[in-house]
Design brief:
The complex is a heterodimer of chains A (524) and B (912).
Chain A (H helix, E strand, L loop, with lengths): L3 E6 L8 H10 L8 E10 L2 E10 L7 H5 L5 E3 L5 E3 L9 H5 L6 E2 L13 H5 L9 E2 L5 H9 L13 H5 L5 E5 L6 H8 E4 L11 E8 L11 E2 L18 H24 L8 H19 L17 H22 L2 H24 L4 H4 L3 H24 L4 H28 L1 E2 H8 L7 H16 L4 H26 L8 E4 L8 E6 L1 E2 L2
Parallel strand pairs in A: 1-10, 11-14
Antiparallel strand pairs in A: 1-8, 2-3, 4-5, 6-7, 9-10, 12-15, 13-14
Chain B lengths: L8 E8 L7 E8 L2 E7 L15 H4 L1 H6 L8 E3 L12 E3 L2 H17 L11 E5 L12 H8 L16 H11 L3 E4 L6 E5 L3 H4 L1 H14 L2 E5 L5 H4 L3 E3 L6 H14 L8 H7 L5 E2 L6 E2 L7 E4 L4 E4 L13 E8 L5 E11 H8 L5 H8 L3 H15 L4 E4 L2 E4 L3 E5 L1 H4 L4 H14 L9 E5 L43 H4 L15 H10 L12 E5 L3 H4 L3 H9 L4 E4 L12 E3 L9 E8 L5 E10 L12 H11 L3 H12 L5 E2 L2 E2 L10 H16 L8 H7 L1 E5 L8 H6 L10 H17 L5 H4 L11 H13 L8 E6 L13 H7 L7 E4 L1 H6 L6 E6 L4 E8 L7 E5 L39 E11 L1
Helix pairs in contact in B: 4-20, 4-21, 5-15, 9-12, 9-13, 9-15, 12-13, 20-21, 22-23
Classes of the chains: A alpha+beta (524), B alpha/beta (912).
Chain lengths: 524, 912
């Protein structure tokens, strides 16, 4: 077998950006898009300061999270380890981009010229419309590798078959080769020199290996990477707020959660009394509204059906699949007045809601999303919003709703528990400082007092029949609005990416390696 | 690169010489006639020290070539008023019209005589890129040669942005216009602000990376943690402009704290002036007969001439001797039984006050750090070790000291260059394997062979073509507007000398002239190529004002810029990827460009010229024709003005002097001559061969990296530690200037010391600003520095989007770098817009916080105060150039000053 990898020697790298530029040339990337770049890190405080330059890009991971989440199978991993994107399959949903913990992926929707206006001669000549509106990233110059191998050349040894970044590196800091060949250049380097991989704890098995010190055995193994919550001058390497999923994606979580929660709660409520049929079309409309919003966000909306191509690993595909029975059973249930079909739609809604939770959980590039406690949070939030919406519908239709009020009370409590558990988990395990700051700003609705108020209103609605409609509306709206707020914040305000981290600062020549840094991260 | 369907891709050979650390070889991929990609030239991997690679700057050339902002047709100014606020109203013109206008002006000027009433050339020219412009200007040097005297004194950065003292003193002491460690062998480098990872080119970067792999210990002494500091084993954040104190402290340790035998005593005795006896007036004691300096021979216990066979010179002790002392202007003293000590003994006494403890407070560096650095230096010197290079046994001393530009420019440059070179001499590490090397020659001749430039002079030292200071030979006028032959003996008078003169004096003279120097006339015609002094010089507002008053300026223009905004004619020439030229490569050149091969490389056009742009060689030929100088021009080409002689032993590819030759014909002849030169006349392949292969080389002996063999062969000594010659010429220069009535250069005359004393440089700067501008220096609490950027330096590429984009990945670009503690004291936060101001001006930028900078220091990388250059003018980035004064008080004896100024900083509101 073949498993290509890059070894970056941090002792040699000078941060010159020649590889960055060579990559831009070789791949004709748009202005502002850098498949390969070199980061500039600084640690310590004056006068004991270290600085290091770190080449990054697609890590062509052993277990690429981008591949697993891709709903279209556009992202694949070849037998030789190269992670590829089929531009003709990709719908540009950017799920892979938020699932990549190395910030390696981007999407360009419109042709761009370096100086604005009309494309320059070389830009026009090399324009590739297939790359618009879809995910893009480092290909490891796969065309060069394939063409070179076809001519009997060895990638990493023969320049004509070697990625442009590697063959252009003026410091000899980048080496590329086959990890499965024990005698390859990369294997020999990794056998002899101390090295680490970035964010190894995430389990992706990244394939850029960083050499940071002298011979193996010379120095102690690296210790834990120090977190620096508020680093100075390291904005470019610290976690940044992702912008690939904006309010439209948030709307899908808001409306999808509410709609499916509403259907599920309506079905559940139908077990205790007459079904609130008015809630059924509302639930369908909610979910549809969310999906329409997301449709407007994807780069290639007319290929949306490709979303069904990866049920094996993608929770986005599964969400889309769950939507089908949800709408089918829901519409039929409403038309036919069938509680059984309503129950099936509710169950499908629960599946949809669970898929939404798992979509976030699988987005490995966003620490605030990937935490396991996000799953109960999203599920309980959806159900609570559903109960809240149902309470409002029942109040509006004059339906007795004691059971729903009690359920809402319980769900608000459950949601508060999920929220507390989620926040506590993030605190313990660490997350970007910006995520905590974003959550800290949710004071209006999601702190203990207003939630207690919502729960109290719901409970009072159950206990005081005379005031039930008013209290139901108050509690329902409270549950809805606070749930929506938390999801909006989660998707658009707390969604800081992983950022970059260095396990160790490199030794420079006769110097000593020093502790690394995880800038912009906080852990209690 | 995979070409889109239906597109054909070819590849042509070229070179990148955008910075002084080139040339490097590359390939340009061309698709349907359009250059689309730069690649390394893999076929050069075996001969090029950096394996055929080019740096990030080369990758900007695709956008540079295809840039829609290019000037694509000759343009003539319509608005006679010039200035920043004036619209030049350029109108497109034909080449015929533009050339006719220029040649008309030239002919008109020539008719009045080549020199004007002040004795200055009527035609001036300014070129950028530290001399690299010549490898892009085709045969233009031949036109200039054909024309006659040209004034090159209007600098675009020389003397203020270069390594000026290193250039002059380096050439003087060891034919080292540029100095480099023997990086392929060195074990320890102490780098005082030398930013080799940014400015050492691909050869420097590759070699230093290899050195780090070997475990080299580089100590970076610099107020901020530059890219080079980042790549060093240790960073020592020294207070700005106090480097001489650090180096003097190292000298103190080496000379007064370690056993003498740990120094290279044989080297000191045989290859330096250390044993020369110093007479009571400070000049050498000489043999009355031969007038050779005397040494004290320990074997015979007698004073004997320095070159006495078998003598064992004393380095220390005091001896009663008789002899002759020759001072300035041939003053002579006969000494009978005078007490004299060797120069070395004087040196030991000279450094006595400069202990590490003394330097600690000055430099804000612990004494222990300086002491350890000195001892490490000695440890790694391996005094006594030898190695064999090309069959020659030579000393092996793998330690070196590098100097950065602000360290080796301006006041203090002499001290630093002296101390650095002296420390190499003390351990026998000058011009030997592993040690401190000169890599190129510019003032001595021949310029392409350092060994041949080792010509014996007087007193056992190398000759040096000083501008004369004796009464009968002194030049009280110079063929330049900055008086380099009058004021700067060390600047010599080679074709490079004007650029190495005090170039800011040329601008200052235009403002108000200098007393007792000729009236500062304006040039009739000023040519400008690949430079933008309105941005790149100091006090840029003042420079712009001067340029706005020049009567006729011709700019070879790429895009509109701040300097050509004042031009009368713009000529679009083929840029890097469109022009045709053959240049020399390899051997030993600038910076770290010392190769094991030498030869020639072709810059083959990768694309047809955009618009009406024309090859520089064609333009030069037309100018020669239009001024009636075709024969002189062709003759100059034949004699080597285009880079190589067209004839030699057994071959002659000379052009017919009277005919007009096409661009291809000229370079075909050049290629043939190059082939013949490399094969000693055996082969004569022309342009086709170079088009196919890109370059052609033969081996260059590694032994020639080192001057030591030539010194030994000729029995010569390095002129260190004692500067008797400089002491003499300083006194003579003072006398000559005073005879002219010039006293405004007196401060500079004090630099001519036999051994430099420490002077408080920060105080000198502070006093100069207070005196010149009547300010309280306390109101300007920060030192402002700049640093080289590999992405930008020398490239003239601030208008290239891709360069801007990738440079932004390197911290510090585009803003004001400051220490977070200092920022917190002023209530400044990351990204906040600030105004930085000095007594001369203001600049604006965003705060960039980094721990790797002293709290008393600010840093602005690059020079980006553009207001006209497309793209660059919209970057809103700061530049220190408008803050730095042109000041006589801040000009040292070599005519340079340092990129350094005191500033204050305040918020302007807004964020980046």
């Amino acid at each position: 077998m073949t498993r290509y990898a890059i070894v970056a020697d941090l002792n040699r790298c000078v941060g010159c950006q020649t590889c960055t530029s060579a990559c831009k040339h070789a791949n004709n990337t748009a202005p502002g898009i850098q498949w390969r770049k070199v980061l500039d890190f600084e640690t310590g405080a004056f006068p004991t300061v270290n600085r290091a330059f770190v080449p990054v890009g697609c890590m062509h991971c052993d277990e690429p999270s981008c591949r697993d989440v891709c709903p279209t199978t556009a992202t694949r991993k070849r037998d030789d380890g190269i992670v590829t994107i089929d531009y003709d399959l990709c719908i540009g949903c950017a799920y892979c981009a938020v699932a990549c913990p190395y910030q390696a992926r981007s999407r360009v929707d419109l042709p761009a010229s370096a100086y604005g206006g009309k494309a320059m001669r070389h830009e026009a000549l090399r324009e590739d419309p297939a790359r618009l509106g879809v995910a893009q990233k480092c290909t490891l110059c796969v065309d060069l590798i394939d063409a070179g191998r076809a001519r009997g050349l060895v990638p990493g040894v023969d320049a004509a078959a070697t990625p442009a970044c590697v063959s252009s590196c003026i410091a000899g800091a980048l080496t590329m080769g086959d990890l499965d060949d024990p005698e390859s250049n990369v294997s020999q380097l990794l056998r002899s020199k101390r090295h680490f991989r970035m964010h190894e704890e995430l389990g992706n098995g990244p394939n850029i290996h960083y050499l940071y010190d002298g011979e193996i055995g010379d120095v102690a193994p690296p210790e834990a990477v120090p977190y620096v919550a508020e680093p100075v001058g390291l904005a470019s390497v610290s976690p940044r707020l992702q912008t690939k999923w904006d309010w439209r994606a948030a709307a899908n979580f808001v409306f999808g959660g509410t709609g499916t929660g509403l259907m599920a709660m309506t079905a559940l409520a139908a077990l205790t009394g007459p079904a609130s049929w008015a809630a059924v079309p509302l639930a369908l409309i909610f979910v549809m509204a969310g999906l329409i919003c997301i449709w407007f966000e994807i780069g290639r909306p007319w290929r949306f059906l490709n979303v069904y191509l990866n049920p094996f690993t993608s929770w986005m595909t599964r969400e889309a699949m769950a939507a089908l029975p949800f709408f089918g059973f829901g519409a039929l249930a409403w038309l036919l007045g069938s509680p059984v079909l309503l129950a099936l739609s509710g169950l499908s809604g629960l599946a949809f809601l669970y898929c939404q939770a798992r979509i976030l959980r699988a987005a490995k590039g966003i620490p605030a999303w990937r935490h396991p406690a996000v799953v109960p949070l999203i599920v309980t939030t959806g159900l609570t919003e559903g109960a809240g919406a149902l309470a409002v519908v029942m109040a509006a239709t004059g339906t007795e709703a004691r059971a729903v009020a009690l359920a809402l009370t319980a769900l608000v409590g459950l949601r508060a528990w999920a929220w507390t558990r989620y926040r506590g988990g993030l605190q313990r395990e660490g997350a970007p400082t910006g995520a905590f700051a974003a959550f800290a700003r949710i004071k209006a609705g999601f702190s203990a007092a207003p939630q207690a108020l919502v729960a109290a209103a719901a409970l009072a609605a159950a206990l005081v029949p005379a005031a039930q409609p008013v209290l139901l509306v108050m509690a329902g709206l409270g549950a809805l609005l606070t749930g929506w707020e938390v999801k909006h914040v989660l998707i658009t305000r707390a969604a800081f990416d992983q950022g970059y981290a260095l396990n160790r600062m490199p030794a420079r020549g006769a110097g000593k390696s020093s502790p690394g840094i995880k800038p912009g991260w906080f852990r209690a | 690169m995979k070409p889109p369907n239906g597109k054909s891709t070819t590849s042509v050979s070229s070179y990148c010489y955008q910075c002084v650390a080139g040339p490097d070889l590359m390939k340009v991929d061309v698709m349907d006639g359009v250059p689309v990609q730069i690649r390394p030239n893999d076929s050069a991997a075996a001969v090029h020290p950096a394996h055929g690679k080019v740096c990030v700057k080369a990758f900007g050339l695709i956008q540079k070539t295809n840039n829609p902002n290019r000037i694509q047709t000759p343009m003539i100014r319509s608005n006679p008023k010039k200035g920043r606020g004036e619209d030049p109203q350029f109108r497109p013109a034909s080449w015929d019209e533009a050339l006719e206008l220029i040649c008309g002006k030239l002919n008109e000027s020539r008719a009045k005589g080549l020199m004007d009433e002040s004795g200055f050339p009527r035609v001036a020219a300014s070129f950028g890129g530290g001399g690299t412009s010549t490898v892009y200007m085709g045969t233009f040097p031949a036109f200039l040669k054909a024309w006659g005297p040209i004034d090159m004194s209007f600098g675009s950065g020389q003397g203020v942005k270069c390594y000026h003292s290193e250039h002059l003193y380096g050439e003087f002491w060891h034919r080292a216009f540029t100095v480099s460690p023997d990086t392929p062998r060195v074990e320890m480098i102490i780098s005082f602000g030398a930013n080799v990872e940014a400015s050492g080119g691909v050869c420097g970067v590759r070699r230093h990376a290899d050195a780090r792999d070997r475990g080299v210990k580089r100590v970076q002494v610099e107020p901020h943690l530059s890219v080079t500091g980042a790549c060093s084993a240790e960073w020592v954040p020294i207070r700005p402009k106090t480097d001489p104190a650090f180096m003097f402290a190292m000298l103190h340790v080496l000379l007064r704290e370690v056993p003498r035998e740990r120094l290279d005593i044989p080297f000191l005795k045989a290859r330096s002036s250390a044993p020369y006896l110093v007479a009571p007036n400070g000049f050498y004691l000489r043999d009355p007969e031969s007038e050779k300096p005397l040494i004290w021979d320990l074997t015979t216990a007698a004073a004997v001439p320095y070159d006495t066979e078998g003598a064992d010179p004393a380095l220390e002790g005091e001896f009663t001797v008789t002899g002759l002392e020759v001072g300035a202007d041939d003053d002579r003293w006969r000494h009978e039984g005078a007490a004299c000590k060797p120069a070395f003994a004087h040196l030991v006494a000279h450094v006595a006050p400069y202990s590490p403890e003394w330097a600690a407070e000055i430099c804000d560096v612990p004494a222990a750090t300086m002491r350890t650095t000195a001892l490490d230096y000695l440890h790694h010197a391996h005094v006594g070790a030898t190695t064999v290079v090309d069959g020659r046994e030579m000393p092996f001393r793998p330690v070196a000291i590098s100097l950065g530009k602000t360290v080796s420019n301006g006041w203090g440059g002499y001290e630093c260059a002296w101390a650095r070179t002296l420390m190499a001499v003390l351990i026998g590490g000058l011009e030997v394997p592993g040690g401190t090397l000169g890599t190129t020659v510019r003032l001595n001749r021949p310029a392409d062979n350092r060994w041949s430039s080792v010509v014996p002079g007087t007193d056992g030292f190398m000759n040096y073509p000083m501008n004369p200071t004796k009464r009968d030979a002194f030049h009280d006028t110079s063929p330049s507007r900055h008086a380099h032959q009058t004021l700067i003996p060390l600047a010599a008078n080679s074709p490079w000398s004007q650029a190495l003169g005090p170039t800011h004096l040329a601008w200052m003279a235009q403002q108000k002239g200098f007393e007792h120097l000729p009236k500062p006339t304006q040039p009739d015609v000023w040519f400008v190529y690949r430079t933008n002094p309105v941005i790149s010089f100091w006090d840029t507002g003042a420079v712009a004002d001067v340029i706005a008053h020049f009567p006729f300026t011709v700019c070879f223009a790429y895009t509109h810029d701040e300097t050509n905004h004042m031009a009368d004619v713009l000529l679009p020439e083929c840029t890097d990827l469109e022009g045709l030229q053959l240049i020399r490569i390899g051997g030993s050149k600038y910076v770290e460009q010392f190769w094991e091969h030498q030869g020639f490389a072709l810059r083959e056009p990768a694309a047809a010229p955009m618009g009406e742009a024309r090859d520089f060689t064609w333009i030069s030929t037309q100018l020669a024709k239009g001024t009636g100088l075709l024969a002189e021009y062709n003759t100059a080409i034949n004699k080597g003005a285009a880079g190589l002689r067209f004839f030699g032993e057994g071959y002659d590819f000379s052009l017919d002097p009277d005919a007009e030759h096409s661009v291809e014909a000229i370079w075909d002849a050049a290629c043939r001559a190059a082939s013949a030169e490399l094969t000693e006349g055996a082969e004569d392949q022309g342009l086709d061969y170079f088009r196919e292969h890109g370059f052609r080389t033969i081996p260059f002996p590694k032994a020639r990296w080192y001057l030591y063999p030539a010194m030994v062969e000729k029995g010569l000594r390095f002129e260190l530690p004692y500067q008797e010659r400089l002491l003499r010429i300083g006194q003579e220069l003072g006398a000559r200037l005073h005879e002219m009535g010039i006293t405004w250069w007196d401060r500079q005359l004090r630099e001519y010391e036999a051994m430099p004393h420490y002077q408080d440089l920060p105080q000198l700067w502070e006093d100069a600003l207070e005196k010149q501008y009547g300010v309280e220096i306390g109101d300007y609490p920060f030192w402002l520095l700049t640093a080289r950027s590999m992405q930008y330096s020398w490239g003239g590429n601030a208008g290239i989007q891709m360069i801007h984009e990738v440079a932004a990945n390197v911290a510090g670009h585009g803003g004001v770098v400051m220490n977070p503690e200092a920022a917190a004291r002023l209530g400044l936060r990351e990204g906040e817009r600030v105004e930085v101001y000095s007594p001369t001006g203001t600049t604006n930028g965003a705060v960039i916080l980094r721990h790797g900078i002293r709290p008393d220091t600010l840093l602005m990388i690059g020079q980006f105060d553009h207001w006209k250059t497309p793209f660059a003018k919209d970057l809103k980035t700061p530049s220190m150039n408008s803050l730095t004064p042109m000041s006589l008080d801040l000009t040292d004896a070599t005519g340079s000053s340092a990129d350094l100024v005191r500033v204050a900083i305040r918020k302007t509101g807004g964020r980046a």
